[in-house]
Write the structure tokens for this entry.
Amino acid sequence: MASEKKERASFSGRLGYVLATAGSAVGLGNIWRFPYLAAKYGGGIFILVYIILAATFGYTMIVTETALGRKTRKSPVGAFSFFTKKKMGAVGGWMNAVIPMIIVPYYSVIGGWVLRYFVEYVRGNGASLAEDTYFSGFIGNAAGSEIFFLIFAALNILVIGMGVNGGVERVSTVMMPSLIVLAVIVAVYSVTRPGALAGVHYIFVPDFSKFSIMTVVAAMGQMFYSLSIAMGILYTYGSYMKDDVDVESSSYQVVLVDSCVAILAALMIIPSVFAFSGADAAQNLQAGPSLLFITLPKVFASMAGGRIFGILFFLMVLFAALTSSISLLETSVSTLEDEAHMNRTGATVFMFAVMIVLGSLSSFGYNILSGARIVGMQFLDFFDFLSNSLMMPISAFTTCLLVLRAAGVRVVIDEVGKSSKFRMRKMYSLSIRYFAPVLLVIIFLSSVLSALGIISM
Ligand code: PHE
């Protein structure tokens, strides 16, 4: 393994770890995916379930993956075989490693949409973006959307191929705080529009009659996605973490930053649905993946200086998306290097091919392949469902098994205890022993049943 040959690189300290992890965590998941899921699954009740899950289960998983990564100084496949030395271990490791390879192609399709909107704002076409039919026209046009997807995918490959991820990360340390500031301004603007308060109410007041098992399934999938867990990323980041960095509190900081950005995005978007969609509000709340793209242009169109806001906003989202997709791609490439013994160029070319094939399917699913369905879903929705609702529960379950059956809870507790007193030790151990595995089984079964049409989403 590469890690045995060279000395492993490491983060400069706590801040380095938190910034890198938050950079990977904050992305389209927060800004694009969270608001549309919250809108779709009943607003406040979804957000409440999400926060409870993130603070307990999400935190447990972050601590576990980071600690195991640091203990073994290996990426997921290596970390699994470190403890198990059996075929089973490799299965667990690969499960973690394959998920990013499925996500990064469709992630790049959405990245392409963001790029398109950025370019249109630069060209001064904000008014047409705000028209109701713009988005459907755009994704309905095969060549138009494919090109932006390919550019976004190529950007990723360039950054990885030229080994300049560090540069992108440095730029994003400026972009991320700026994105947050801008999002606060836009959120304040949207919640103060006439009619927007109904949206604030929708976000913050849980309506328990809207609760169902699907609320939990959706919130759980979103939690994995948004926190970058159950896909090996945090093993890798943990392996770069110095022994004296406090795992417990840095994990909390990552959860906190990530959740705040998600809620902020919901505040930008959901109240404006109420304020700007008029009679279509109820229908637009169900818009799904297109929600961000049909709502925000209306907000910018009504703002003084909307064009500048549009340019800056989509530029920053582009960076947030890039840092995340680069981290997805980087783990995929390094797993292929370490475990499939490809060289870096080969692994990068291989991933580019995977991105083009799976990403094009997702992109064409909105136009020339719009008739195609896999278990009732379009390609993009299918890849999203496959990775978030089916594979991530299995992958997180294998991590639980690794801890419970092979490594032992003590190993994690001792690893965390190396750098600080593990204050939540009791809660951690209950959570990893009982809460997490049971919940994971329930989630997985519900996803399967809903895909088979036995229960409804
Ligand atoms: N967490 C990122 C987001 O919210 C997506 C991601 C997942 C990035 C896994 C890296 C690894 O957009």
